[in-house]
């Protein structure tokens, strides 16, 4: 049974966000601001349907998806690319593959020890974020 990720989650740690943003070719000025921000994730999960909001004082990003259904994603407000996105379950982890001009791009998200873990990957960079439930 996949994990229940519903709720509002506040960022506790954000390891190697700078490296991840560099791999996405995000400019220096944006990286300088973004790496100091605390993000809040709001997840509405209804079975395999997800509505997620990632909010910060600098930028917000909304993503709605259904597990197992590929869709076109425009990473507006992030690196402004168009990617083919597919999210699947691997046990109780959500695994996302984003096909586009960057290799090895995607993320994994899971609950462990009552915390929400998000692992962002692009090229050879991995960023690990941890969120606690509000």
Automatic annotation (TrEMBL):
Keyword Transport: yes
UniProt-recorded Gene Ontology molecular function terms: lipid binding
Transport recorded as keyword: yes
Segments forming domain Cytosolic fatty-acid binding proteins: 7-24
InterPro entries documented for this protein: Calycin, Fatty_acid-bd, ILBP, Lipocln_cytosolic_FA-bd_dom
UniProt keyword list: Transport
Superkingdom classification of source: Eukaryota
UniProt family annotation: Belongs to the calycin superfamily. Fatty-acid binding protein (FABP) family.
Identification of the protein by name: Retinol binding protein 2
The species this protein was found in: Sarcophilus harrisii
Organism taxonomic ancestry: Eukaryota, Metazoa, Chordata, Craniata, Vertebrata
